[in-house]
Amino acid sequence: MKTIHSLCIGGLALLAVVSLDANAVTVGIDPVAQSALVNSTVSANVTISGVNDGTAPALGHFNIDVGFNPAILQFMGVTFGNQLDVFGLGDIQDAMFNGVDSVNVLETSLDSLADVVAHQAQNFSLFTLSFKVLAQGTSLLTPSVITLADPNLDVFSADQTLNGSIRGDIQSIPEPSTWLLISCGGFMAWLVTRTRRP
Q1: Number of domains into which the chain is organized
Q2: Three-state SS for 22?
Q3: What secondary structure letter does DSSP report for 166?
């Protein structure tokens, strides 16, 4: 009897752990493109998942740093998502450099907890960062969660953060043999049109 009781308690504990992992709050970075040419602009979405499944936590405030390699990427701007302003009442938004190799982004909703729980998606983009690619190489994009809170500013934590990366590439230049082939083709086309004239 004692063994069955222990097994039941162990099974319930395992079920609780599995249930927590299924609703784990995750903040991650999803680059729109994994690579881009030098001097072009590239963007990356910072996303959250596992919030607002009809119960707490629903997201009403975030404060997140995103690190990058300033030798490869230059921060250009931020575009905020719409899930913290579900009724268009407005929200408080800010983005600023946090040193030369990271940007700090925060947003606070003015909607009530009940409105956010009723209308906010479970998985969504918090904001999108735009970068100019400065040089060839790979830059990790690393989110660092400072604060996550519901609209009442009750703080909760992210169970995990997922990094992203963007690779800067240079445009390939045709080799001399390619230029020779193109030149020969152009000469042949010119010769054919020249010999067909009356």
Answers
A1: 1
A2: helix
A3: E
Domain containing residue 58: 21-184
Residue type, position 115, single letter: D
How far, CA to CA in Å, does 145 sit from each of 1, 64, 125, 192? Answer: 47, 5, 15, 67
* CATH code of 33's domain: 2.60.40.680
Is there a domain that residue 3 lies in?
Answer: no
User: What are the structure tokens assigned to 150, written together?
Assistant: 């519901």
DSSP one-letter code for 24? -
**Residue pLDDT, tens place only, 2-39:** 444 443 334 433 333 333 445 689 999 999 888 889 99
Q: Phi-psi category of 144—alpha, beta or left, where left has phi over 0 and alpha has psi -120 to 50?
A: beta
Phi/psi at 113 (nearest 5 deg)?
-60, -45
Find the DSSP H helices in 93-175. 113-119
Q: Look at the block and give the residue holding tokens 């913290």.
A: 84
pTM for this entry: 0.74
Alpha-helical (H) ranges within the chain are 2-22, 113-119, 176-195
